[in-house]
Amino acid sequence: MILLPSWWVPPALLATVLLVDVALSIRPVRFIRDCLHSVRFPEEWWWALLVVKTLAAAGLIAGIWIPGLAFAANSGVIAYFLCAAAAHIRARATGSAFWVNCLGMLALSCVTLALSFL
């Protein structure tokens, strides 16, 4: 098993996208706020999503040099977006935010893992 990414660009790109998501979520822009409300995620827990995404981005970047860390962080991001997809399906919130944002991020996470570690 490869413990370091074969190419540093995919994990760095995913980390950048996650950090942009964090920046947009500090004072959530409308589409993020609408998305979180649509799955009935409590506002008092929105801060936890910022922490999870920031730690994932840090793990992806540090994992470029630390064996196994990028793989673990990338796997965690995939699990996060699988849970987000399940929450959308459960809440029957399968509009454009689900298809573009949630599944788009899941696809990006899966492609990153495939390009970096397969």
UniProtKB/TrEMBL annotation:
Localization terms from the record: Membrane
This protein is called DoxX-like family protein
**Mostly located where?**
membrane
Alphabetized Pfam families for the sequence? DoxX_2 (PF13564)
Q: How does it sit in the membrane?
A: Multi-pass membrane protein
Database matches in InterPro entries: DoxX (IPR032808)
Q: Which residues cross the membrane?
A: 6-24, 45-66, 72-91, 98-117
Keywords of this protein's UniProt record, alphabetized? Membrane, Transmembrane, Transmembrane helix
Name its species. Answer: Dermabacter jinjuensis
